[in-house]
Amino acid sequence: MTFDDKLVAKIRDIKLVVFDVDGVMTDGALHYGAEGEMVKVFNTLDGHGMKMLMATGVDVAIISGRQSLALARRSSDLGITQLFMAVEDKGRVYIQLLDSLKLSPRQAASIGDDVVDLPILLNCGFAAAVPAAPKFVRERMDYVTKAPGGHGAVREFCDLIMAAQGTLDTSLQKYLPS
């Protein structure tokens, strides 16, 4: 990956990445089962990207407007402990998270897909959106993924951060024969 110096400067000091769920970690569709339960579909490549990012020492958090047993399970499976669900004011929870981790907004990155994510996206060091995000959101971002939400956008975002921080190649080496 090649980067301009401005992008690398924004990403270099990232210590926390905050993810939205619907439309980012999923394709944004809401599926309901016969009993009315919500079913979410997650991408395994995205999940592995999150695990690789965490292995480099970057903290990962999820802030979602919805309550979901599927999301709680997915977060647990990935080892993500900073999970906030049914959040009405994402900006407030984000600031509390930064305070608890003793980080500045400049040390955080986030990826979202809609206007409800802007309180975080506009108050972090590196902000990204998925291609399906409204133009109003996309035009305010540092980066818009090529991959859609639920289909590789999270992995692309994680890989971008690791590449800019110089940790991607090392992270990938363990998968190659010695």
Could you give a quick summary of the protein structure above?
The protein has 178 residues and is an alpha/beta fold. The protein has a single domain, classed as HAD superfamily/HAD-like (Rossmann fold, 3-Layer(aba) Sandwich). It has eight helices and eight strands; from the N terminus they run αβββαβαβαβαβαβαα.
List key phrases describing it.
single chain, 178 residues, alpha/beta, Rossmann fold, two-stranded antiparallel sheet, globular
Structure description:
Strands 5-4-1-6-7-8 form a six-stranded parallel beta sheet, sandwiched between helices. The chain has a two-stranded antiparallel ribbon with strand order 2-3. It is 39% helix and 15% strand. The longest helix has 13 residues, at 153-165. It has one domain (5-172): Rossmann fold (3-Layer(aba) Sandwich). With 178 residues, it is of the alpha/beta class. Helix 2 runs parallel beside helix 7 (153-165). The protein has helices spanning 5-12, 44-55, 69-78, 90-101, 118-121, 135-138, 153-165, 168-173; strands at residues 16-19, 31-32, 38-39, 59-63, 82-84, 108-112, 126-129, 143-144.
